[in-house]
Structure formats: structure tokens, C-alpha cells
Sequence to fold (567 residues):
Amino acid sequence: MIDTWAQYVFLFCGVAFILALKGLSGPKTARNGNLVGAAAAVIACALPFFYTNNLKHVPLILVAIVIGTIGGVVGARRVQMTQMPQMVALFNGVGGGAAALVALLELHQIGDGANISWFNLAATAFTIVVGSVSFAGSVVTFAKLQELMTSRPVVFPGLPIAFGGSFIAVIVFSVVLVHSPGMLVGIVLALLGLAIGLLLVLPVGGADVPIVISLLNAFTGLTVAAGGYVLANTVLLVAGTLVGASGTFLTLLMAGAMGRSVANILFGALKGGSTLGAGEASDRPVKSVGPEDAAIMLAYAEKVIIVPGYGLAVAQAQHTLRELVDVLVARGTEVDYAIHPVAGRMPGHMNVLLAEAQVPYEQLIEMDEINDDFKSTDVVLVVGANDVVNPAARTTPSAPIYGMPILNADAAKQVIFMKRSMRPGFAGIENELLFEPTTSLLFGDAKDTLGKLLTAVKAL
Amino acid sequence: MSGIDPSVMWLTFFILSVFVGIEVISKVSSTLHTPLMSGANAIHGIILLGAIIVTGETDNALATTVGLIAIVLASVNMVGGFVVTDRMLQMFVRKPKKAEPTEGASK
Fold:
């Protein structure tokens, strides 16, 4: 039994986590919310060192915490903002892995046939399996986003059978664990969890990976909640459940923003080849222009909308783009940025990237607010984006992005589409917008070309 | 407390937390999806607490080793998660000079 005062502190921490999430969901309060959460987490983790004198291995535990802290801080500080989604995936994965290990250890503690309720053992099995799923799945998402492996869906003929088989095996071995708890069964469950995590994420196409990160995040939350039940610890249960519930809800919100269902994202590739788009460059005729012509189009437009995408960030061209926009605004042109909900690699990612380049918050307009403005826009400049302006989302039911709301760039009078090559976007499908008569392609590296555009506009 | 079955009590915590978890973030704008996900990700790093408790209870050398690994992983999740979220949110702080008055140009 934990001392009552310590239980009160745990209650306090649980409330603080609720306030932290509440804070994180509003733009003005977000940073404080995060700090409240961090403070609560530190207090909660410090507590076992004070409420009991029986804690063993204290020096080793402290060393392990220091190692993990250094790793976390270095990773979090060094990571480029463009690579942040995979960093979040990695942090989530190690959290899930830690939860699975904790459950295995707890199983080891109770292993001597002690009197444990079946529900407790079921929660242990759940923690081991889902924690392992989260770990393996996050490692695959990391590899996909970091481009250590192909970002395209990986499907092989036996995959649905392997997945179904592992799933049934998990249920069978969970029942075995509840009946006769033992380490061996626990380890089998962990291995099956790893296999399921792998098989779950491999078939997911690159563009859908953010949704999967969010889903795995919710999984880890639920894992931690189940771990809290196993350890009879309220703050783990409450914090884990909060993350599990809000994470699931957030996943549905994100999927909604992309016009996809979560089931379709996870299992779409298993049903047929429809999510396997063309990976080849097209050789259909297009109209291309040089930076000087594009500069004239931009400089004499009254209203310009910029559609930024992940390619912009990869080329580190945000600052050059902002300079170009500043020059255009100084000439009297009205310029807005149209931010698709999933521009970048995750919802809201593009806002972070542009904010980093000190683009004023007021120029960033969300899709729903700006979509009607495209009709009255003279020039749309698409930089490093592709799928978010692909009309196939409206017209081609077989396309993997079909149903996703897109920016109506095709409604504008002219489109300047900056591209490195004719290769299709992250979703791997050809973009009809490229072949429209109103579209002019401006080939080249985004940063380089924006620099030339800037020089040319200044010279006018 | 004598009248309450502990498992019902835990279930009560769980169900109420589900509703609270959904309710507190229900009005989030898509701009904040990424930091919110990252912040929630950091919060489940609280499994560090569980890892400390379990490791502190065991005498077995192998179990201690596994526990220490869990502590390292959980610390990475918790500390890294909060730091990276803070870094993201720093970007959203408005620059005091430019922010409010000069914005007549767009919109």
C-alpha cells in the first residue's frame, strides 16, 4: 500500500495531465500546457524514491534515467523540424517497448503461481502485446519516413494470412497466459506483438504514415493504462487512458481531414493493388517556363496564393520563399499561404515549418477558409506540394487519395508548379493538374529556383 | 471504501478518463494536431514511473537489467517527448514586433 500522501500527489499529477492536454489543444495555452505535463511527469516519477525505503538498485536506476534523459534531449534538440514526425514515432515506439518490458517484469514477479485475478493477467497480456505492436510499428514508420526503406506500401502474397494467423495466435496465447501464467508465454506474446506491428505498418503507404503514428500513439497510451492497472497505479492508468482516448479521437480527426477511414488506411493495400500508384515518371507533354517568365507572372498578379508542401521544407527553401513573398507584398500584391491540413508529413507540420521561417501567422490560411478564394486568384505558386492539389482526389475513385479534400488550385487563372522532376508525389499517383493548359511547370531545386525567382522579381 | 469492489473502482477511473480525454481535446484546430500528438506522446512516457517501481522491486539480475533497459527507453520517450513538443510550440509564439498592428496586408 502506498502512503496516503503519495496517493494524493499521484491524484494531483493525474489532474495536471488533464490540464496539460487541455492546454495543448489551444494555440495560446499550448506551451504552458506542455510544461505543466512535463512538471507533473517529473513529480510522479520522483515519487517512488520518497514514499518507500525499499526501492532497490537506486544508483543504477538513476544512471539509467540520466542516460535516457541525455538521449531524449539530444535527439529532440538535434532533429531537424522536417524530420520531426519520425522523431515522434521513435519516442512513441520506445515508450511502447518500455511498457511491454514493464509488463513482462511484472509477470516475472508474480510468476510463482500467486493468486492473481484473471483480469489482471489479461491486462498484462494486453500490455505486452500492444506495447510490442507499438514498438515494432513505430520502428517501421520511422524507417519509412527516414527513407531507410521504401515509403510505398509493402505487400506480399501471404500477408493477410500471416496477419490473421498472428492475431489468432495472440488470442490463443493470451488465454494460455491467463490460465497458467509463465514467462515463456509472455515472451511468445511479445514476439507475436512485434510481428503484428510489422505486418500492420508495412502495407501502409507513405502518405498515410502520419495517421499510423497517431494511432500507435493511442495504442501506447492504452498500453500504459493497462500497465497502470497491473501495477495498481492510478496515475499510470489515468495518464495512459487520457492519451489513449485523445489519441484515438485525434487519429479519427486526422483521417477525416484526409477524407480516409482508418480501416481503409490500414487494410486498403491488402484488399487490392489500388493504393499502389505509378512510381514512374510520366512523359506526357507539359508546358514549362523559366524563372524570368514566372517572375513576370507573379510580379504583375494582383492576388497570389502559395501552396507549400513538404518538398519546400526538404529543400530548406522556406526562408527564400518568405523573402519572395515579402518582395511581392511590398509591390502591392496580395499574398496568402494555403495550408492543407496534411501539408508536410503530419497535420499542422507545415505551420511549424513556416513559423520557423518567420512567416507571419496571419498569412497562413487553412484550406476551408481559402478554397473559395482560388477562383479569384491570378497565380497559384505550388512549391514542393503535389498530392494536396491533385484533382484525382475528386475525380478518380481508384486513386489512393480519392475523397481527400484538396486545395482548389485548378480553379485559379494560372498555376506555377515548381517541381524537381516529373516524378509523382508521396502517394505515388500522377497529378492531372500538371497537364492543364493553365499550368506552367518550373523545374529545378526549390531553393535554387526560388532564389532565381526572387532575383528576377526584384529586377522588375 | 469498503462497499466498492476494487475492479469496479478501476473501471470507473478508466471510463471517466476516456470521456475526459476526448472532451479536453475536442476543439483542437488542425494547426495544433502535430504538437498535441507529440505532447500526448510525451505524457505516456509516464510509464517511466512503472519501470522504476518494477525495477526497484526485483532482486533477479536479468530482471534488473531488463528493468534498467525499460527505464532508459521510457526516459527517452518522456524527456525527449516534452522537449521536442516545446521546440515545436516555440515556433508558434508570435513575434512581438510584427504580430498585431502591421497585419493589414493579407486578408
